[in-house]
Write a structure and sequence with these properties.
The chain is of the alpha+beta class. It is about 10% helix and about 25% strand. It has helices spanning about 20-25, 90; strands spanning about 30-35, 40-45, 55, 65, 70-75, 85. It has a 4-stranded antiparallel β-sheet with strand order 1-2-5-6. A two-stranded antiparallel ribbon has the order 3-4. About 10% of the residues are buried.
Length: about 110
Amino acid sequence: MSPRRNRPKGSGSAGWSAEDDAAQRYGGWQFTESWQGEAWSVRHVAGASAAGKTYRCPGCDQLIGSGVPHVVAWPEYAGVDDRRHWHKACWNARDRRSARVQRSRNAPRY
């Protein structure tokens, strides 16, 4: 029996492109989504690329731990300061969740 072939046959479009490889290596895929009448860029972040960092989810106001896969979303024509890190479930339920979370006086804003 011959060994299994791990590479795509030929050099056609059946395999991964260099852009796909970079997207998978550096945090997942990115696409544009419409929300609240505005175009949003959405990127899925792998847990390995988020190691050593924590973020606060605007959907549930909880911390996204180090190494946890999550979603980064920002308005398409905004700068890097407008990026927000969401739990995947919070991003999917963003129409049912809002930033109406009441915090105590000493709680951080983000």
